[in-house]
Amino acid sequence: MAERSGSNWARVIFRFCDRFSYLFFKFTVVTYCTVFWLIGAFILIVGIYAEVERQKYKTFHGAFLAPAVILILLGILMFVVSFIGVLGSLRDNLFLLRMFMCILGLCVLLELNGGIMALVFKQKTVEVLNKNIQRGIKNYYDDLDFKNIMDYVQTQFKCCGAKEFKDWEENLYHSCSAPGPLACGVPYTCCVRNKSDLPNTMCGYKTLNKEDLEVINIIYIRGCIYAVIIWFMDHYTIMAAILLSIFIPQLLGVVLSLLYITRIEDTIVEWKSSTSVLLSSSTHSASTIQSEIVFTKLGCCRCYPGEEVIDGKVPSSTMVKSELESRN
Predict the structure, then answer these.
(1) Phi, psi of 310, deg, nearest 5
(2) Whose CA is closest to 99, among 302, 263, 257?
(3) What distances in angstroms separate CA 195 from CA 56, 107, 240, 325, one per listed residue?
(4) pLDDT at position 303 over 70
(5) Is-contact 186 174, C-beta < 8 A?
(6) Residue 130 vs residues 27, 80, 127, 251: alpha-carbon distances, Å
(7) Is the pLDDT of residue 49 over 50?
(8) Contact between residue 161 and residue 224 where contact means Cβ atoms under 8 Å apart
(9) pLDDT digit string, tens, across residues 83-124
């Protein structure tokens, strides 16, 4: 704030938005939060339904992957966070809006950190994946969730096992020391076949006790971990598009929340300042009163917080606050 000599006139600095109105930000944030709130509710319902169906078969509870549980957790997170955003934007509650922005920003940071750590410690990531897949292979026939996922991955990526096809030795039914027709073999989803061929469930019979070159035309010998990594590297544009489709909406939510919070704060300060001017400057003309509120023109889209230099000085928020208190 800077006072003009010979008068009580003072300038109050706001972070006002010239291009976008309060209603524009309110409608945008409410729509954004409502959309993700509904998506979260849908994911939660699907996850609960999948978990109920899974429990009917009494599948193994200690298995590697439980998609139903993952969907439930993701749905709860999206539902709760988006609900906070909806409630905060509808009520213009700064506390809830800041909470929504901080949680969303924390999720973005955690995702970025997780991705960077996975790339930097790639070997450690491979070891963790291998350990969990090995555990899933042991319970392959006890957990339908893992079985369906593993069958899909082996079929689509033309692979077998975690690091190699001999990982199936860990399964009690496929171990070479086990009795039965599955002994020393691999699941039929590991078999090399044309799409037109009918699946032969015994095509992987007695392959675990043979060398790679002996079974290269019968089953896939490459491990699924390396097959998936190679696919990601070959289709990096698709992966980049998927990652951006996850990251950008969250980042957009953080930016919109920040601008909306800024706009609400400006509206509050504008109202308080206008009231103070009207009460303490009843003898001033209308043009003088209107000139006492000046809005900044700085920042991205003239919305982001900025300061205005007046008479060669940058007014501080403390000066603005003290001036408003003196008027009261």
Answers:
(1) -120, 125
(2) 257
(3) 33, 41, 29, 79
(4) no
(5) yes
(6) 47, 33, 5, 32
(7) yes
(8) yes
(9) 999 999 998 899 999 999 999 999 999 988 888 888 788 888
Strand partners, 313: 310
Segments making up each domain of the chain, as ranges: 8-164+222-271
Place of tokens 């300042």: 273
> How far is residue 21's CA from residue 214's CA, in Å, rounded to a whole number?
71
The amino acid occupying position 321 is K
pLDDT at 160 over 60: yes
**pLDDT tens figures, 64-81:** 457 788 889 999 999 999
CA distance 151 to 153: 6
The two structure tokens encoding residue 161? 């096992």
DSSP string over 86-155: HHHHHHT-HHHHHHHHHHHHHHHHHHHHHHHHHHHTHHHHHHHHHHHHHHHHHTTTT-HHHHHHHHHHHH
Return the structure tokens found at 182.
Answer: 């599955």
CA–CA dist 241, 237 (Å, integer): 6
Cβ pair 119, 152 in contact under 8 A: no
